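Field reference: sequence -> structure
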Amino acid sequence: MAIEQNEQQYLIKRQPGDLQAYYHEDEISLIDLWIVLVKHKILIAAILIVCVLAGLAIALTKPRIYSYSTSIEIARGVGEMIEKPGTVLAKLEQSYIDFVASEFKNNNSQNFPKVKITAKAPKESDIIVLESKGTEEMSDIHRQLHEAVINRLSQDHNRTIAVMKRALEADQLYAKNRLSELQDQAALLKIQEERLGETAKLLTSQIADMRNLITESRNNRRQAVKEVTGEVKAMTLLLIDNEIQQYQKRLSELEEQLAIGIANDRDKIRIAMADNLRVQDEQREKIQDTIAKISEIRQTQAMTPTMRSLEPVGTGRAMTVMISVILGLILGVMAVFTAEFLKKAKAQMQTVKM
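Structure field:
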């Protein structure tokens, strides 16, 4: 409060021209700024050198950080992935990565350096990429951690894959058993067809025998007509005619069975064999289809080994030195202005006190 009153009295005592000069003294001039900077160039240079040396020390002592990445191929079932990339990504981020990192740290050392693994799913892609950063000396550790995460995810997917395989293998076994049954039926049908041929030969032989009997009976009848007389002749002819009639009836039955029955049976067997072969082909197709589906199943695995980036990531040595130069200049200028401000403030305070 006393300072404000003294300043007001100081300004009142001055003439209007003095007040205008007073305000001009506080205006910023680029020339004055340059003069101030040149005046304190040693201070600026000292601060700049200190910052540059600090930047060089940091650049030379700071270990080079590389990026380690592993691309994961998601397990596939029959024509599609067993889980969508978004679901796999959520499992990795919420469970598997933290679990593996914690387990790995507990099994090694409590002072083990922390390794942060991140997972991402590139757009319009069906793969998951694991990434982590570390020094070249820790490349084996990053590789082990990435493999552990992939193994954990693979174990989860293998349960689903095992169920798929068992179902497909059951279908394949059923188709094989069905094919074996059909092949046995085909063999039986072939035997039946061969037996029809033998039956046809037997019928042909029986027809020939029956014709011989008919011929013999007719000869007997003619002989009886010549030799037998009286009532015995009539009875003999009646018996012979009846016998011939029976033989002719049996001959007709045999000829019908040979001409029609055997042909119908053979047609039925051939139709059954054609149907059998068609179903056999269907079962073979099913077997091949299940084999193809089983071969399409892919486990979750790394597409390539864990790869280290060719160049270090993050702030490089040249960038570190450049930042230290810029920071040195900024701090130097700020130090000059601060020193000049304090100097003027001190002088102003002395003038006010006077």
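Note: The chain has a mean pLDDT of 82.
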